[in-house]
Structure formats: structure tokens, C-alpha cells
Amino acid sequence: MTVDRKDKDKKARLLIVEDEPALCDIFATKLKMADYEVICMPDGVAGLEAALHDQPALILLDLIMPLKDGFDVLRDLKLDDRTKDIPVIIMSNLGQDFEIKRGLSLGAEEYLVKTSIDPAGLAAKVGAILARHGAGPG
Amino acid sequence: MSFAALIGALIGDTLVLLLGIVIFFVLLRELNRRHQRHLLFFAIAALSVGLAFGWLFLSQILTFNGRSAMSESSLVFRMLMSIFPLAIVCGLVECYCAEKRQTLWESLAAAAALAVFWLSRVTACPDTLISGIKFCGSVMIGQSPLLAVLLAVFPLMIVMTGCHRFRCRKRPIACQPDAVLMWAGICGLLMVYALGVALMLQNAAAILVVYLPVFAFLALLLLGAAAKNNPDQSVVERPINFVRRSLAFKVSLLIIVMFWLLGLIMAVVTTTAFMRALSNKSRDAIRRDVSALADDLSAKQELLLQETVLAAARPVSAADAAAGRPDRLFTELERAYKVRGGRLTLRLTDAAGRVLFSTRSADEIGRELAGAGNVVSRALGGSAAASLERDPLLLRTVLRAAAPLVFDDGSRGVLTTATEYSSSSLFDLTSSERSAYGILPEAGQAILSAGPALKPDDVRDVERTASGGRDSLSVLPDGSIMGASRILDTDGMLRGYAYVLLTAADFSSRFMGFISLIVLMNLLALLIMTLTAVAGLRALLRPILDLRNAARAMAGEDLPQPLVYESLDEVGEMASAFNKMGAVITDRTARLRRALREQMDALIHTANGVILPLNVLRWTTDLLRFGNAGRLTKQQLELIEQMHQTNQRLYRMVQEFLEAAKLDQGKLVINRASFPIEEAIDQAAGMLAIDARNKKLELVWRHPRQPLPPVLGDRVHVIQILLNLLSNAIKYTAEHGRVVVNAVETGRIAPDSLSGRFIEVTVSDTGRGIPAEDIDRIFERFYRSPLVAAEDIEGTGLGLYIVRGLVELHGGRVWVESKSGSGSEFHFTLPAAPLPAE
Question: Where are the beta strands (DSSP E) in A6-128?
């Protein structure tokens, strides 16, 4: 678990829930370069816990994870008042139509299929979503 | 005449009659049982053929007894034979046509039959002799319009059934009866063909052959038609089951066959004996008649000669003779002859041959008197002589005698006497065993004859037969029996032959009378025996039938009903044992059902009670999970998460159980709405996507290219159906397998039934498959294959039960196709929403 806390007041905080450390690192690095504060969590349980306590402005969520899968995490996030308004971007290997529909129907803002994610463009996408949702978490 | 052919024709007639009657009763029984009108028509057809041939047979007896029944019989025969195609056509119409067309076709058939009848009435043909059996020609050949109709009916039948077969090739199960009907049509054609050939050949053996296709035709028609309209699926699949189905039917059939075989043997034996006796009797009578004929003629000749000689010995005055007054002489002679019949002529001739006196003119007497070498010239030579003569001019037969005479003046003369005869006055034959008889002179035509004239060949036969001695008989090549004897003159010269002929036709018609009587008696006895046996069997087998019905009812869901049959025999014992068994089963079933219901109620009660604690548990874990009760450590969180997930699973299992119970009690409410099935599949597949991925399975949802029409149903329940099927497929498919779901629009609710607009969803997997012994039970409540249970795969055994309940509640069907080891395919159909009105 890596927790970076810099310029708490200025930077928007992002939560990445991803069990693959390499991917986690890449995304974290790219997003940090775009001047975001990034928290990485390796499984669903830790991810949910972090979302509840750290109040990220946006969550990047993997689906296939140990302990608790991404859909469960997403459902739980939407159940709790503290987290239900946090935009969620799903990043997953599951790319079939019905899988994407499932993710979006549970309340995900965006569904990114991992094979077609461009790490460089990720920051722009995150920025756009954050802009759409106003200043940040309420 | 061929004896075998005769017997054969009779037996054939009898068989067809019998077959017709038996089929009639069998069909009536089926009709009573199944209420299918076509059976009635076929019964009528069978009966009309049977009766027609029976009547033909009966008419032969009537003809023999001297009353010509043929014109009457042909009327009845034609009427009956016209009913035959009518009934066949109507039966086929009943088999094939929809309600509306039936009346039209049936009235057309009736009109055609009527036309056939009247056409055959006006067609007249001469009587036909078929191997010695006399058939009224118009009976057989006059049926040509009928034959034409029959010829049209059978190919039509073949075409109709052929079309049906072609149309139902997709569903071959219904084709068996059509195949049988087609064969019936072919046999019908053969029957008509054989009948035609038999008529042309005029051969009874060929007629016999006709009976085979008749037999086959009726039997096949019966089988095919019964199977075609039979609601019993086993009969439709295998028409022969119609015969196999009933024990009583089989036993009756056996008895009938045995009785009739015995009857036929008896008939053949008796007729053979009769034939021999009759033949001997006829031969004796012919012998008697021949000798009577010959002796009678000789005696008459002798008598006339004696009387003539006696008369000539009396003194006759030459003057009286010349004056034409030999009255005294003539009166005496006439008195002597009076009693013998015939017309007496008396004549006196002088030595030069001039007629001195004659009671009748020369023209009346005949020309022979004047010729040389006759009795007169022989008497002039000094010896009395008699002769039998035929007067070719006046066509009379004359018995003549002449004796030398000495007049009182010493001159010589001749007294000639002659009597004329007709056949009836000459012969007094007592027996009737003859077709023709007569006297044949040494050469030339018969001089006295009755019956048909002899042909030149026959004349030679007479001579040949007579040369064999006094009692010799000969059988002519055509089967006629002939007796003949020589007739010798008073001086030992051969003067001619007496003959008696009994033609084959007459003999056979006499024989026919006897045989008809025997066979008719035989037939009546057999009919009575058969009916008694069948009726008795039915009564005897009824308790078995009741037992079968009761057992069948018990095999179903019904509770056994007690049988009422009290007897000391085996069946009675069986019935009482069955009743005891039934009582035990009823009692046990009731107890079991009660216990099961109580258990179920208790389970439902418990399940309902479990819901609240489960919810409390869920809320508690939620408080902990979401950190509302303070921040937990990572390990605590993981444990709580596990608890949460287990709780969820438990909750789902209890819900599943309660849903099954609701389905069971009919309390499940369905809120129908139309929605695209694709959405439901999207959701269900999405919910199981991660499970599939975790098991390294490929879950594929094959979207249809065009959007499907929406289904009519309850979205929540349809998703439930899909979830159950998909999760089963995932559960029972090994790693790296594949689960595929797809949906299509279909016209049938299930492969072999009802049509309509349906959406069929298929969930197939590459899993373990379902063993054949389990496939019928997997939709049952709580059923889990022993193999699965042994492997400890999690499951309640309710998933598929709920699937079936929900699908059927929606008005669809669910079925499975699977082979053990090679994956399963679950299909279910849901009704498509009705099209919006345009």
C-alpha cells in the first residue's frame, strides 16, 4: 500500500483499485505527472475502505480482484452516502458488450477496457470527468 | 370342371364374407371406443364386400333349386358392390379432409356410387361359365363402371397419402399410417387388376388370386386409417400396435383363425366325400338310364314285331283288303297297342309292293316304305323284321315292323305296322341325372333325343363308349360323363346306340347345390361358435381389462379405485390382491403426502423465520463494513467481507427456497410487460461475468443481428430464469470451457408441438453433460444428480425446478438436450409480445 500525500489542499485525490502492481504504478505515475494525488489499493476490500476514509475525487476501479470484485465494490460505493457521488472509472479486461453495460448500469462514469487504455490520455479523461462533476468530492 | 377351382371359389367367397363381417364388428367396437367416423365407413365397406360375395354364393344355391335368382342376386350384388367404393371414399374423406369439405366430398361420393349402381343396372352381359361355375355375366362384367371407380379411388389414395408423406417429412413420426394407407392403395389396385385378369381369363384360379389383395387391401386400409386418426401415439408410430394392444383382440383373433381353419378343413373333407358319393350316384343313374333306354326300345320293337306276326297269321281276305275293309284286323291290332302309346298305322301290301290298304296316306307314313332294304322288302323275302326309323322329311321317329302274310286267295303280301313316337312317350326315365339323352342310328343324326344336340365329336364318343360293353361309361375331356349302349335289331344287327350325357356344367351345378348347403351350414355353425367364443372371452377378460385400467390409473397420479370382481379363479384372486395393494398404497400415499406437506410447511415457516435474522446480520455487517462502527483493521475488514458474502449467499438460498414454495402453491404473481429479451440477457450475463472469468470460462452472448421482437413476461423473473441456467452452466463447466447464450425467434413453443410466435433462448455449455438416466428428472424439485452430489458441488436442487415453473407460468416450455460428457443445451421459449395493431 502506497500512500502519497502532497499538497493536500490543492491537488485532487484519485483512488486506483487495481490488483496488478505494475499497472497500478504506471497509472499512478502518469496521473501524478498530471498533478493529481494518487492512492493505490490492491483489492476490493481495501479499495472500499480507502474510498470511505480518504474521500477521493475519483476512483479508478479494476473488476477482477481478490477478496471482492469490482462490481461489488461499485455497488457498495453507490450504497453509502459518503461515496455515492464519487465518479468511478472502470478499467477492466472484460470487454464484452454485456459486461460494459453491467458496469455502466451499476453507476460507473466511464468503462475503459484495459487493452485499449492509453496511459497518456488517462489524465485528460480523468480531468474531463472531474470538471463535469465540479470542484471535487462533496 | 376343376374340383379344386370350385372349392377354391367357394372358400374364397366364404372368406371374404367372413372377413367383411369380422372387420365390421372390430371396427364398430373401435368406433364405439374412439368415436372416429371414418371407422364406420370402412366397416360399411368391409360389410358390403362381404355381403356381396356372400350373396353371390347364396344365389348359386337358389339357382340350383330351380328358381332363377340370378337377376335378383345381381341387383343385390350390384347394390352392395356400389356401396363399397362409396364407403371407401367417405372413409378416406374423413381421414383427410377438414370439417368443411367433408360434406361436399361425401355427397359427391354418394352421387358417384348411385351412378355406378344405375350404370351397372343397364349393362347387360351374357352368362359366363368360369371353369364350370356359372356366374351371371352381368354380375361380374357388368360391374365395369364400378371397376372404373375403384381404379380411380386407389391411385387417388396413393397420391393423397404420398402428398401427406411428402408434407410431413419434417415430422416423420406421423408418416407411418400414411405408408400403410399407401400400401392399401397399391393392394387395391392389384385387386382390381387381378379381378380384371380373372374375368378375361375366365379362370377360377385367377378369381382365387383376387381374394389375396382383397384381404390385404381391407386389412391394410383398416390398420392405416385407424392409426391415422388414432389419438394413441403408440399406434400412430407403429400401426401394428392396433392389433397388439388388446389381449382380448389377440385371443379372439387366435380363436377365430383356429375355428375357421378347422371349419375349412371340415368343409373340404365333407365336400370331397360328397363329391365322390355324388359322382358315383350319377354314374349309376346314367348306367341305369342307358340300359333302360336300350332295353325299352328293344322291348317295344320286339312287341310290335310279335303283334305284327300274330296279326299276319290270321286269315285275311284279299277281296276285303282290296276293298279297303280290313277293319277287324286293325281294330284288334290297335287294341293290343293301345296301352303302349304312339300312333299306330297299319298297311297291307301285295307281293309286288303295291299298297292294298293303309289306315293313313302314303305321305303320312313316309317314304321309306317304298325303298328297298327296309322291313317291307325283308318281309317280302319271307322273314318278319322290325326297325327304328327316322323320317327325315316329317322329322318323326317311327318304329316299324313287317311280317309276311298269306291272303285267303293264296297270294302273298306284307302286313306293316308302324308307331310314331315323341321322345317323351318313348322313354320313361326316372332319374334326372342327365343333360341329354337319345338314340343314335348307326350313322348319322340322333333320331330320338332330348336335351342339347350332340356335336360330331360327341357322336364318335358315343360309338367309342358303346363299344366298351353294356355298362361302360366314359368321361369326356371337358369333364362330362357319358353312358352309351348298342341297340341291336331283332336279327342281331346293330341298329344304333342309346346314350345319356351329363355335362360338366350340369354336374357342377348339382354339386354346387350340395356344397353350398354344406358350406353354408359350416359357416353358420362357425359364426355362432366364433361369436359365442368372442363374447365369452370378452366377458372373461373384462376383469383383466378393469385391472389394466386400475393399474394404469395407479401408475398415473390417481389413487387406485377398488375393483369389483368377486370370483374364486386366478383373476378374482388377483383382483382382491390388487384391491389390498391399492388400499395399502392409498393409505401410505395419504400418510406420505400429509407428512410431506407438514414437513414442507414447517420448512417454509422456518425459512420465513430465518429471513429477519439474516437481514439483521446483513445490516450489522454493513455497519461494520462501511466503517460506521469505527475504523477496522485490514484483517477485520477482510473477515467482515467474507461474512458479508456468505450471508448474501445464504440469503439467496433461502429466497430461492421460498420462491420454489410459492411456485408450488401457485402464489407466484407475474407482472407481464413487453421488453426486449436482449436486455434481460445483458443483465443476467453481466451479473455472472466475473464468476465466469474467475472460473476461466468464456461466457459468450451471441447477439442476434436484427433486434428480436420483445417478449411478454415479468422482467425480474425472466432474468431469474437466465441467471439460474447460466450459473448452472458455469458451475458444471470445467476451466477453459465455454458457455454460450443466444436467442432466436421461432414459430413453435417446443420442437414437436404448438405453433405461435415465441422467442427461444438457448444456453449451451461444454460441460460434463447430463447422463441419460438423469435427464428426465433434472427439472424435479430437490433433484440433484448423484454424481454431482458426490462431487460436493454447491446447489440446492431448486434452480431448474424454478426455471421450469417460471417458464411454464409465462406460457413457454423448457427442455434440455444433452449427452453425458459432451455438454448440455438448455432451451426455453417465451411468448413474443403481440404485434402492435397497424
Answer: 13-17, 37-41, 58-61, 88-92, 110-113
Exposure class string for B50-67: b at 16+ Cβ within 10 A, else e: bbbbbbbbbbbbbbbeee
Per the domain annotation, does B272 fall within a domain?
no
Q: Are residues B180 and B300 in the same domain?
A: no
CATH number at residue B798: 3.30.565.10
B318 lies in the same domain as B197:
no
Point out which residues pair with B420 in neighbouring strands.
Answer: B343, B398
Q: Does pLDDT of B430 surpass 60?
A: no
For residue B137, how many other CB atoms are within 10 A of its CB?
19
- Which of B482, B502, B522 terminates a domain? The answer is B502
The total domain count for chain B is 3
Yes or no, beta carbons of A98 and B682 under 8 Å apart: yes
**Does B266 map to a domain?**
no
A81 touches chain B (CB under 8 A): no
Choose the weakest-confidence range: A91-105, A106-120, B250-264, B386-400: B386-400
What is the per-residue pLDDT across A13-25, written as a single tens digit (0 to 9) for each? 899 999 889 988 9
**What whole-number distance in Å separates Cα of residue B385 and Cα of residue B308?**
10
Please tell me whether residues B214 and B291 are part of one structural domain: no
> Cβ of B687 and A102 within 8 Å?
yes
Q: What is the pLDDT of residues B298-351, one digit of tens each?
A: 777 788 888 788 777 776 666 666 665 555 666 666 665 554 555 677 777 777
User: pTM of this prediction?
Assistant: 0.49
Cell numbers standing for residue B411: 297270294
CA distance B377 to B372: 6
CATH code assigned at B448: 3.30.450.20
- Which of B502, B532, B564 is the C-terminal boundary of a domain? B502
pLDDT at residue B115 above 70? no
**Chain A interface mutation, best of B619, B622, B682, highest count of A Cβ atoms under 10 Å:** B682
Which chain B residues are closer than 8 Å to A102 by Cβ?
Answer: 682-683, 685-687, 689
Which pLDDT score, from 0 to 100, does residue B34 have? 58
Q: Which domain range does residue B445 map to?
A: 286-502
ipTM confidence score: 0.87
Q: How many CB atoms lie within 10 A of CB B464?
A: 13
Q: Do B641 and A94 touch (CB under 8 A)?
A: no
| Residues B302 and B238 reside in one and the same domain | no
- Three-class SS of residue B753? coil
Residue B725 is predicted with a pLDDT of: 92
Candidates A76, A98, A105; nearest CB to B701: A98
Q: Are residues B202 and B291 in the same domain?
A: no
In order of start, what are the domains of chain A with their CATH numbers? Answer: 10-130 (3.40.50.2300)
Looking at residues A44-62, what average pLDDT do you find?
Answer: 90
Cβ pair B637:A45 closer than 8 A? yes
Contact by Cβ (8 Å): B184, B157:
yes
